[in-house]
Amino acid sequence: MKTVVILISGRGSNLLSLLEAELPGRIAAVISNRPEAGGLAYAKERGVATVVLDHRAYSNRADFDAALGDEIERHGDSKGPDLVLLAGFMRILSDGFVRRFSGRLLNIHPSLLPAFPGLNTHAQALAAGVRIHGCTVHFVTPALDSGPIVVQAAVPVLGGDTEEALAERVLRQEHRIYAQAVRWFLEERLLLTPGGRVELLGEGPPATPLISPAQA
Ligand code: GRF
Questions:
Q1: How many domains would you assign to the chain?
Q2: CB of residue 17 inside a 6 A radius of ligand 1
């Protein structure tokens, strides 16, 4: 059975949805860079190993990333886990770390990439006046929020939306597509082409167009 390690920094709602998704793999550990991360409790309640690796104990990014990589590799078989998931892990990872886990490192980002990389994506979307917003699961590459896209979900931006209302609408879709992407990976249905694109082997669910504002 394939093994998965999940990295978090906070609330952990994506972690919770992954823990409850009955994935065809074993979640071997949850690692947080913040001791107060609420998500750690979800793992503990379900008997999943938790580790806190506080980045503030390291004087530079390279040392922390090396220690994090070593900790990740302690879980799973001798080569470490098959898959590493960033689930609200709020640290920029060094090129060395990303290369170490290349092809087995996924992230969920709360925008329709390549629009709105970085932080405060919902505020960015509202400021830009887009009518459709969403979320993206992608493989992680050294450039921030720009690796090969696996799956995206779109939601309408509604008149009067606040950042919080929009964030909640997007988050519900994050929970759906992250579990879906992980399932595809564990079933060995994701193929990274030499051109850096993701191909899904076999049938995916039917895609429907989203038009916002809706037509009469
Ligand atoms: C999510 O919106 C995720 O896309 C972003 O950080 C947030 C984490 O939320 N990277 P949670 O900790 O999973 O609840």
A1: 1
A2: no
